[in-house]
Amino acid sequence: EPIPVLGLKGMFKKMLEEDAALVIWTPYGGMMDKIPEAEIPFPHRSGTIFMIQYYRSWSDSEKRPDMRIKWIRELYSYMTPYVS
């Protein structure tokens, strides 16, 4: 199932809490669904709409890296109902 608009709005709101956060969407399906599994060993087939990568960098000199880790864990937790 696609992520509902309300879920996306919540994700974007969470993303705006950080100044250098990034989301990378990698679409799946389409042509890959047409190629038989026996021809190409690609596990992300039917039923997988896309892969989402969350990114937030910080420097070694940052005083509170634990806050960045807390933020990414909160984002993962928020997105859990929408992803597999």
Structure, explained:
With 84 residues, the chain is an alpha+beta fold. The chain has one domain (5-82): Vanillyl-alcohol Oxidase, Chain A, domain 3, CATH 3.40.462.20. The chain contains 3 helices and 2 strands; from the N terminus they run H-E-H-E-H. The protein has helices at 5-15, 31-34, 65-79, and strands at residues 21-27, 50-56. Strands 1-2 form a two-stranded antiparallel sheet. The radius of gyration is 16 Å and the shape is elongated. The N and C termini lie close together (10 Å). The mean pLDDT is 85. This is Cannabidiolic acid synthase-like 1.
Features:
Vanillyl-alcohol Oxidase, Chain A, domain 3, elongated, 2 strands, alpha+beta, 3 helices, two-stranded antiparallel ribbon, 84 residues
Q: Any low-confidence stretches, pLDDT <50, length ≥5?
A: none
CATH architecture: 3-Layer(aba) Sandwich
Report the principal-axis shape: elongated
CATH topology: Vanillyl-alcohol Oxidase, Chain A, domain 3
Order of helices and strands: HEHEH
Mind telling me the CATH class?
Alpha Beta
Average residue-wise pLDDT: 85
Strand order of the largest sheet: 1-2
Estimate the helix proportion, in percent.
25-40%
Number of domains: 1
Distance between the termini: 10 Å
SSE-based structural type: alpha+beta
Question: How many E-type strands?
Answer: 2
Query: Which percent range describes the beta-strand content?
Result: 15-25%
**Count of helices?**
3
- Radius of gyration, in Å, reads 16 Å
Largest sheet: 2 strands, antiparallel
